[in-house]
Amino acid sequence: MTSIIVSGHGHFATGISSALDLIMGRPDKYTAIDFPYGSSAVELEKNMDDAIKHFGNDDILILVDLFGGSPFNTAMKKVMENSRIQLFYGLNLGMLLELVSRLQNSDDQAGVLDGIEEIGKSQIGKFHPEDMQVDCDESEEETL
Hints:
With 144 residues, the protein is an alpha/beta fold. The protein contains 6 helices and 4 strands, in the order E-H-E-H-E-H-E-H-H-H. The chain has one domain: Phosphotransferase system, mannose-type IIA component (Rossmann fold).
């Protein structure tokens, strides 16, 4: 079984988890750990240790907001101490939705992580209104 820990600065973890709840529901083996203003790295580490302990002997994925921040650094220590833990940074909602979907619908737990970074990267882009205009113009021509 694979468990998920999501963490990040401020209320990133509970915020992105709220979106996950709304769109597809939260998995059973999932926890969100915020790192709000005024909290310490010691508190963050205790919260992460508690979550890891709660998940027992599960494989654990820790997903954080960005590379090099306190949530990442704390999780990195946990990865170095425990071979059952993997760490991904740069988490976005598209990546989280895909990962949870794969975990819930796949018997191939090893293959679940294949290309997950690329999924996250593919969710980043810039909207160009002129691209939409071309599509609208083409559909109008088809109806004439």
